Amino acid sequence: MRHLRNAFAAALAVVLAFVSVGARGDDYPSHTVKVIVPFAAGGPADIYARYLAQRLQQSMGQSFIIEDRPGGGSVVGTEVVAQSAPDGYTLLLMSNTHTVNESLMPHKPFELMRDFTPVAPINYSDLVLVVNPAVKADTLKALIALAKSEPGKLNYASSGPGTPYHMAGELFKAMAGVDIVHVPYKGSGGARTGVISGQVEMMFDAVTVMNEHIKAGQVRALATTGKVRSTVLPTVPTVSEAGVPGYEAVIWLGLMAPKGTPRAIVDRLNTQITKIVSQPATRSEWEKQGATPMTMSPDAFGKYLSDDIVKWAKIVKISGARVDR
């Protein structure tokens, strides 16, 4: 009889555990959720994190606060989330910086697919190659010719190692056969200012953020990085059509949670994020900025991340880029 009672108690505990997980999903969130952005304020990750947080707060009835924790090419803030409780109350706003860093920074204190759970993608956008107006190159071919005539003398800025801006530059170097020097800043704002002020000659930057500076004449746009021309900059050719066939690089954003976060919570977040980015008003507003919404299930997003890690590992190897930690 005691054996039966013990067996019944064990079975009941399992059932209650599943019910508890379901309840946490249904009741989630019951208090403030923190979204850590491991990049500097003012860049695409920060901007779209705040956009998303405001609408999640409206739809889920609890505060979603943004905490910018830049440093180490996204490693500092990402490690904070990796060490957080897997309860859905600390989330990571991530980008393809993270999939790049899996091969670029092999000794970092976490592994993306081991220590995190995919939640949902957010959007993607093209980059644009801009130069300071003082640079004597009005076209991409002219810039390539200038770089080849003065190897190692031209510099390009980025928001740090492993970021899409850095890897776009490394891919460009490899495919165009030019020797330009990487100048990493602590954030995209500093890199942007460096190019506008003339401290650095050029950079690849998100169309969503750099477009206003192009319109103001503070920089000159030479090419965008997508497969087709950007709807925001339709007169600017792609890198591929302007002189480097086959070139493509974008920046995308997504949300992850610490490994072990209950699936019910992950699914609830995915559903709410998908609803937000699928709204016509969101799509219209983002497309005007040059961003395209992305929607996937958690499992599909996980496959997307794994595939992107493999893709960038090949590019890191080709480019020879490496950051040791």
Residue ranges: pLDDT <50 for 5 or more in a row? 6-24
Number of domains: 2
In CATH, what is the class of the largest domain?
A: Alpha Beta
Distance from first to last alpha carbon = 59 Å
Say how many strands there are: 10
By helix and strand content, what is the structural category?
alpha/beta
**Second CATH tier, the architecture of the largest domain:** 3-Layer(aba) Sandwich
Helical content (DSSP H or I, runs of 4+): 40-55%
Oligomeric composition of the shown chains: single chain
Going by CATH, what is the homologous superfamily of the largest domain?
Bordetella uptake gene, domain 1
Series of H and E elements: HEHEHEHHEHEHEHEHEHEHHEH
Overall average pLDDT: 91
What overall form do the CA principal axes indicate?
globular
Our estimate of the beta-strand percent is 15-25%
| C-alpha-based Rg, rounded | 22 Å
Helical segment count: 13
Instruction: Write down the CATH topology of the largest domain.
Output: D-Maltodextrin-Binding Protein, domain 2
**Major sheet details:** 10 strands, mixed
